[in-house]
Amino acid sequence: MNRRIAVIPARGGSKRIPNKNIRDFSGRPMVSYIIEAALASDLFDEVHVSTDSHEIAEVASRLGLEVAFLRPPHLADDHTPIMPVLKYVLEEYLERGIAFDSVVLLMACAPMITADDLRDAAVLFDAHHGKQAVLGVAEYPYLIEWAFRRKPNGVLVPVQPGMFSVRSQDLPPAYYDAGQFCFMPIQRVLAAVGAGSDEGFLGYPIQRHQAIDIDTMDDWRFAELVFSSIRQLAEQA
Fold first, then answer.
1. In which order are the strands placed within the sheet that holds 46-50?
2. 83 within 8 A of 196, measured Cβ to Cβ
3. Cα distances (Å, whole numbers) of residue 179 to 15, 136, 206
4. Which of 80, 150, 154, 201 can pair with 135 through a Cys bridge, CB separation 3.0 to 4.6 Å?
5. Any alpha helices (H) in 23-138, and if so which ranges?
6. CA triple 80-53-64, angle to 5 deg
């Protein structure tokens, strides 16, 4: 039997957007949307909110998830990568005699991700026998071959000199980590060193509006506008 756990990292120390993970987003705590999607997907034997905050743990409890244990402070600072957090969660469950075959990272600020997205990504993961990680990705809106770096004096330097001569239709699409979710075999997490490797992923494309990276209040306001528009369109359909 393939046992699967979802881990939602939601530390309490957000600085750019205070209380980001439980801040009101279109009438509900931000983290409630991904919790709802995870539970509605029926994919997981366990859904764990990894937090160092008693306040966030209380919000999770009101949303139907009891936090089995809190994250230690040394894994909740501004510089800790996600992999050590996932490894800690898995090892804590192992100490309690509970083992899993796969782990799914679900980001707390992912209000656009639906249960259907998670189920479809799980199909891709299972099609490869759970041996390759599946990363939610989005297509770059512009050609990365035409990118520039900008020097302090304002001068633009092409990242790939000469690529302006290549027609856009002759270049393949490029993708980036959308920062929304990732399905992984347990061993990839347990064997990871530091932040882990960026190789060996399968890409599950999501829509551009689902890939908003919410790091600033401008991002937050934009995401709320998009979310409200999508919801209104769905209600009118």
1. 46-50, 4-9, 102-106, 175-185, 133-139, 201-205
2. yes
3. 19, 7, 11
4. 201
5. 30-41, 54-62, 82-95, 115-127
6. 115
